[in-house]
Amino acid sequence: xxxxxxxxxxxxxxxxxxxxxxxxxxxxxxxxxxxxxxxxxxxxxxxxxxxxxxxxxxxxxxxxxxxxxxxxxxxxxxxxxxxxxxxxxxxxxxxxxxxxxxxxxxxxxxxxxxxxxxxxxxxxxxxxxxxxxxxxxxxxxxxxxxxxxxxxxxxxxxxxxxxxxxxxxxxxxxxxxxxxxxxxxxxxxxxxxxxxxxxxxxxxxxxxxxxxxxxxxxxxxxxxxxxxxxxxxxxxxxxxxxxxxxxxxxxxxxxxxxxxxxxxxxxxxxxxxxxxxxxxxxxxxxxxxxxxxxxxxxxxxxxxxxxxxxxxxxxxxxxxxxxxxxxxxxxxxxxxxxxxxxxxxxxxxxxxxxxxxxxxxxxxxxxxxxxx
Length: 372
Ligand SMILES: *[C@@H]1O[C@H](CO)[C@@H](O)[C@H](O)[C@H]1NC(C)=O
Ligand SMILES: *[C@@H]1O[C@H](CO)[C@@H](O)[C@H](O)[C@H]1NC(C)=O
Ligand SMILES: *[C@@H]1O[C@H](CO)[C@@H](O)[C@H](O)[C@H]1NC(C)=O
Ligand SMILES: *[C@@H]1O[C@H](CO)[C@@H](O)[C@H](O)[C@H]1NC(C)=O
Ligand SMILES: CC(=O)N[C@H]1CO[C@H](CO)[C@@H](O)[C@@H]1O
Fold this sequence. Notes:
The protein is an alpha/beta fold. Helix content is 37%, strand content 17%. It has helices at residues 7-50, 102-111, 126-138, 176-188, 198-202, 219-224, 240-247, 280-287, 293-296, 316-331, 363-371; strands at residues 85-88, 116-122, 144-152, 157-161, 192-195, 204-205, 210-211, 229-234, 237-238, 254-258, 269-273, 297-301, 335-338, 353-356. Strand 2 (116-122), helix 3 (126-138) and strand 3 (144-152) form a beta-alpha-beta unit. The mean pLDDT is 90. One 2-acetamido-2-deoxy-beta-D-glucopyranose binds at residues 241, 244-245, 248. The chain crosses the membrane at residues 26-47. Pfam families: PHP (PF02811). One of its GO terms (molecular function) is 5'-3' DNA exonuclease activity. InterPro entries: PHP_dom, PHP_domain, Pol/His_phosphatase_N, Pol/histidinol_Pase-like.
């Protein structure tokens, strides 16, 4: 017994060393695993920002149907009489952030029952001019194009209707004076100025606790600066307070409805009027605010949307990258990256923010167990 006694401590020390070695190696392996995983996730997330896999191919979309809104919609103000123009005052093409070419946009408008459309790409009239040319060549006498642009900045979005030259947006946050200069320039070019979707501009920017467009001029200011009207319906939203404001100033302002179409989806509204001639000039004449504008311009609204929506085919890139993108989307659960409203001047209107969702890191416990 006495010979065995001294061996006991050395046996314990050796097993302690072994245990230490074991956990050290295990620790290193787990660490490697985490590092490899992090690199893999980083690569996936990087690819997600780099690969532009267009989900749907709108160049091939067909609109084989025709809608007759007059057959099931009545004007907002039912005293409004007969009308022959169904106008969309707000739309986008591939000349800005729209997904349809001017030609596709026109075909969609015709199939949705419009016979007039203002093409108002962000910061440029080129989309509108291209749409006008397309109609001259393909659909003359069937639909009227009003070329225009959406003056887009971090304070306000305004449509300039019926201009043939781009009015420059001088900065993401123009001064009051810059805005007045732009409004005057649009008038000089023979255009009308419509203030867009105030309900959207003033609603909260998610994650920032400020409106989407900070420092938006008030309606009273805009009236004073000479704007001609307000978009009271945008997509399927009816902005009642703005409509009431227009009604309080009927000889100075017109209320219009716009789809703000960016890609084929439901359309919801039509600006309606009766004109003597089927021309751009006759429509613009009617839209111009006057004592009788309110009686001569109204709108139709179907909040449930049009019955027919054309579906576009997926691109081949979509099939190739979807599994990879689904995986990287999963890893995006661990953080939220916010950039704020896009200024359309190459920048964003709010500072960017990344928020880590630490509670999501609980999944690392599971990895521990797998490694053991
Ligand atoms: C642009 O519009 C102005 C004002 O309406 C007009 O005088 C001019 O001829 C137009 N220019 C072109 C190229 O259409
Ligand atoms: C419209 O005018 C009435 C009467 O002057 C006023 O009480 C109301 O606040 C105004 N509404 C809007 C939206 O400007
Ligand atoms: C309608 O067309 C006629 C004949 O071209 C023209 O004289 C008249 O000014 C036009 N009216 C409007 C409002 O465009
Ligand atoms: C409808 O329009 C008429 C004049 O055209 C006006 O007198 C009336 O107040 C309007 N009704 C509503 C509900 O806006
Ligand atoms: C400019 C114009 O045509 N105004 C007309 C608007 O509607 C009223 C009532 O229907 C007509 O009397 C006006 O001539």
